[in-house]
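Write out the 3D structure for:
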Amino acid sequence: MWHFISEHISDKTQQFFSCQKAEQVSGGDTHDSYIIKDTTHRYFVKTRKYDDTQQLSHEAEGLTAIADTQTIATPKVICHGITANETPNIEYLVLSHVRFIEPTAPDYFTLGQQLAMLHAVNAYTSYGWPHDNYIGASVQTNGRMASWADFFAEKRIGSMLERLASNGLWPTENGNIDTIVTKVRHLLSLHQPHPSLLHGDLWAGNAGFNKKGPVLFDPAVYVGDAETDLAMAELFGGFPQTFFEGYNQHTPIEKNYQLRKPIYQLYHILNHGLLFGTHYIAQARQVIDDIYSS
């Protein structure tokens, strides 16, 4: 495998590379992660058993989309491919190796500013993404829609509830899912935000820092409301206040964001319910009850 990947790296970089050491490091639940190196070069590699989902290709696409905005750094995509003559074949993604450092409060301020710059890019006229991709190990339903309320209600909340229901984790009687989708659509019906390129899965573990500044990775990109990234950034541990101060200095956060935040966080809580089970299902039910009573 490493010989095959080394040749692909050499071809893409036009610099000879031959893996002399592959050190496995901690990674995600759906792939293995390695740092590979020779005497002069070092790369970060993700591998997984090949299947039709080609999840790593979606990650490469997302990283490239963010990098192309030239607003915030990501690991550079070196190459993506599938090994030949392996049993089983292996899908791989090779990225530039990032030397992370311990961040300071000013680093988080800069991260907030650069995220706001990403969101401010004016390149899209509709919401969604050309095709489905992944948020963690879960399929993220996409397509493109003109209405933000329709997109978020149907493609985010509705699709996640249906997936939970198909796994026996959510009731379907009495139009339960349709009722929730209709409520979300109604609550967002007057909100038609700037279509922003989103990281899509912006929790603290998907952002880091090197000597040059912030670095985003493991995206679940789509085009939508910038506030969804902020809502996720407040969930599951979140970011320090200086992050939000940096964002707000570049792009003032609307007061009504606080009303939309639980709706946007619901998507990620439902996804965690799909991945990790009952605790998050109970949390999602409480959020839905709060949304209905607000």
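The first strand starts at residue 21 and ends at 25.
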